[in-house]
Amino acid sequence: MVIFPKPLRRIVYKLVSLLILLAIIGLLFLDQHIRHKFEGKRWPLASQVYARPLELYVGAQLSIEDIKIELTGLGYHFTEQVARSGQAHTTVDRMTLYTRGFDFTDAPEPAQLIHLTFANGVISSLTNQNQQTVPLVRLSPILIGGIYPLNNENRDLVPLDKVPTLFTQALIAIEDRDFYQHIGISLRGIARATLANIRAGRLVQGGSTLTQQLIKNFYLTSERSLARKLLELPMALLLEYHYNKEAILEAYINEVYVGQSGDKSIHGFGLAAYYYFAKPLQDLELEQWAFLAGLVKGPSSYNPRKYPDKAKQRRNLVLQVMYEQKIISEQAYHHARQKPLGIVANNRLLVGAYPAYLDLVKRQVKQDYPEQALRTEGLRIFTNLDPIVQHKAEKALAKTLARLTQQYGPEVVATEGSMVITQPQTGEILALIGGSQPRYKGFNRALDAKRAIGSLIKPAIFLSAIEKDYHLASLLDDSPLSVPIAGQADWRPQNFDHRSHDPVLLHQALTYSYNISTVRLGLNIGLDHIIDTARRLGLAEHMPPYPSLLLGAQGMTALDVTRMYQTIAANGFILPLRSIRHVSNHQGQALTRYPYQIEQRIDNASSHLLQYQLKQVMKEGTGRSAYRQLAPTLQLAGKTGTSNAQRDSWFAGFSGNRLAVVWLGHDDNRPLPFTGASGALQVWINYMATESLTPLTTPVPDNIQYHWINRYNGKPSAAHCRDVIRIPFKANQRPLDETTCYSNESS
Questions:
Q1: Is there a catalytic annotation at residue 548?
Q2: CATH superfamily of the 53-140 domain
Q3: Quick one: pLDDT band at residue 733, thresholds 50, 70, 90?
Q4: CATH architecture of 153-337
Q5: Fewer CB within 10 Å: N-end or C-end of the chain?
Q6: Known catalytic membership, residue 175
Q7: How far apart are CA 293 and CA 534, in angstroms?
Q8: Which of these is catalytic: 70, 109, 153, 175?
Q9: Quick one: angle between helices 210-218 and 226-242, nearest 10?
Q10: Which listed residue (47, 186, 455, 579) is catalytic?
Q11: How confident is the model over 300-330, as pLDDT tens digits?
């Protein structure tokens, strides 16, 4: 036996004591670090952006096809037997669906089985599984995207009590069968891994428990090193000492890395369920839970979109282990392993299924919330996006562009488009398209493409005239005009048909979109007055007072134009365009609401006259082709727009419940082979034809009277006379000199 000299023994003793002290200090530090992070805010949480929830009730103007669009976006499975949430079945006029629950800000909506019947595009009955009438059902809103943390880690937290038991059993069976027996580390697992590493001559296996994996992912790094392993063991023991198995399992389920979408990583099984299957975790089937559990070993190696065969083999291995451990029956095992993977193709969850609308939401919400809060606090942003309206608008744009390509050939190649749709009486933005490929994130033309609007500016000019004591029967000069421009050649505006006309009534000048008479009118009124009118209508853009403004040379976006026409459609009341309904925190408590803000900018009489004029545009003017597909009883209003050299095709129009603005053009400003009437208007028609529209009917103000006048000279006449029209006037504005009446019966 070796006996060390006393001085050396003292040194050894002190060194050992120091090492023990350092170890204790280190353990105390680790202990404090573990508890601080585990009990604090564990992860930066992305803000989640939702569409509006679809409300079902008797009388709702919704067809079976409309609701199927919504359910498809929610990831419902259409099946013969509806037995669980997220399933639906349809016939010709009936639908059965098992809704998913959702915690709305005002009250939770329970999951329930409901039955609907339909008649004439309307829900005619709504009952529950006991055949009792249900007054209202709100479907869970579609998650349309998010505002993500800068570390590009993305997750959707799921509490353990919402995680299906069969999934946790699958996870534990394949990753850590002794999870409920060990104290954070498994000696058998360590021995097995050590033997494998010795045989390989390098570190090839970890033998880690779920607790150790959580330590590695949550506190340390994924680097394979001895130093990390030495830290991992005591930290796992400390974590198990302080927290029960349920808390550790819940943290693991929400932390683990399970995939990659571009530069964004998928963490946690809550988000993974949406990313791979477009469904909540609790709505998945046995084989889908097995697939997710199997991903932990190697999300890249078992990426189902790249290596479907390997992914299926791994899934089936998990199912086999579950069967061997008597978690599932033999019948369930054989049935599940025969199922396809069922992975949704090209899931754009993290990009956003509606990137243009999401872009608008981000811009608006950043006015009220700092970037840091949006990227870390897990806010829930509820928007006005209507996925049904968006779907119909996208189809209308694609259908029209395809037809125009077929009609005009190469000249239409690479034609782009944008579209904004609102509810006229509320200002809610229901849909927004930023380009001809609406699912792809890129240049948002609806918000950022400033293009000459052509004749869309004319309602502001004619409204200015109406407010300055012109009336719809006022005669306007449409003869050739030359406008001097300082330092430049004179400006000579032309009508679209390159013809001038005899003096025309004011109402005809707008109906047929005559340019020369419009310019003369605008110059008489004054550019500053017209610019002021445009601002009262909602146009915030700087508008230089150049004569070319009168024919829409000013560049504007589709959203700018929508603001202007929204005020016209809302009977002269300006309503801020709203993409957001309200914002709540991660716990569902309301933080900010975005109520209606209404201000009257145009008096009732002037508003009525302008709407009448825009109805005439649709009835007999440049928008008349709409009534080939749409019912004349809708009394639609709108205006076409074609910019100089036919570089831009516009249309803005509305019914009682829909306003839509459409732009078509080339990014490089090349001329188009079609006008506003033959291009953008056709997109508008194809969209409106898919909607349940309400007529544009407004009460006639007390100070408005309708009179018969001669359509050529604007003088008062009578209903039985030839060449007469009945138009509205403000009180005391009716012309006094009557014209000669030629009866329709006379030769």
A1: no
A2: Penicillin-binding protein 1b domain (3.30.2060.10)
A3: confident
A4: Orthogonal Bundle (1.10)
A5: N
A6: yes
A7: 60
A8: 175
A9: 110
A10: 455
A11: 999 999 999 999 999 999 999 999 999 999 9
